[in-house]
Specification:
The chain is about 45% helix and about 15% strand. It is globular. It has an 8-stranded parallel sheet with strand order 3-2-1-8-7-6-5-4. It has one domain: TIM Barrel (Alpha-Beta Barrel), CATH 3.20.20. Helix 7 packs parallel to helix 8 and helix 10 packs parallel to helix 11. The structure holds 2-phosphoglycolic acid (PGA). The site of 2-phosphoglycolic acid has 13 residues, from strand 8.
């Protein structure tokens, strides 16, 4: 069951299986089992086996940083929803801006992945966000609208999903969005959900902010009424800073 706050760790291409094991062992020493209800982990795919072992018997959310648009076949180098699910994963990150930028993922591919993830009874965490050029040219809402619309067209609103707003200009740059900028985008996303799906779904869905979240800025951001948690990259790589962010929200 998803509840506020939800603090998600996106390790990106960092931490090998041995380091992942040490991370989770350290984490488990520092929090109680019920805290895991508020945490999500997206390790590199090669760490999913140890993640599965380490998070077994906890209520944590976890899964891969991406999945392919097909379930099986001749697609060298890819991983499918079914494979990730077979390890016990319950969530998948999808549409991260690094996937969209470096791997040229389109809104349509993101939508197809969301559909597959939901079909396999896992929860998609769908990333949306504008680039600096798009923001500077006044296109933020237009971009968010286009990204949301394509996904919403295929989304099953009766199954859980999470949206992460990550302005591309704030990811890994140290430039965090001000609480006002983040709140404005979150409000817009919620209004889109209300218009395109329903008021009830819009109220219930968790909207996370991502982009240079740190222990120093987490509390201020979390005070905003439409920010329900965070998707954390760099600061999630150390148990200590990740937990400081979580503790800033409780
Ligand atoms: P960052 O990354 O916290 O390092 O800016 C966030 C993300 O890309 O998910």
């Amino acid at each position: 069951m998803l509840k506020k706050p939800l603090i998600a760790a996106n390790w990106k291409l960092n931490l090998n299986p041995k380091e992942a094991t040490a991370y989770f062992e350290d984490l488990k020493k520092n929090i109680s089992s019920s805290d895991f209800e508020n945490l999500a982990f997206f390790p590199p795919t090669i760490d999913l086996q140890v993640t599965s072992e380490q998070l077994k018997n906890t209520p944590a959310f976890w899964g891969s940083q991406n999945v392919y648009t097909e379930i099986s076949g001749a697609f060298t180098g890819e991983n499918s929803v079914e494979m990730v699910k077979s390890l016990g994963a319950n969530m998948c990150l999808v549409g991260h801006s690094e996937r969209r930028t470096y791997f040229k993922e389109t809104d349509e591919e993101v939508a197809k992945k969301v559909q597959l993830i939901q079909k396999h009874e896992m929860i998609p965490m769908i990333c949306v966000g504008e680039s600096l050029v798009q923001r500077d040219s006044g296109k933020t809402f237009e971009i968010l609208n286009a990204q949301m619309r394509t996904v919403i067209n295929i989304l099953d609103e009766n199954r859980p999903f999470v949206i992460a707003y990550e302005p591309v200009w704030a990811i890994g740059t140290g430039k965090v969005a001000t609480p006002e900028i983040a709140e404005e985008a979150h409000q817009f996303i919620r209004s889109q959900l209300s218009e395109l799906l329903s008021k009830e779904v819009a109220q219930e869905v968790l909207l996370l902010y991502g982009g240079s979240v740190k222990p120093e800025n987490a509390a201020e951001l979390y005070k905003q009424p439409n920010i329900d948690g965070f998707l954390v990259g760099g600061a999630s790589l150390k148990v200590d800073t990740f937990l400081q962010i979580y503790k800033a929200t409780i």
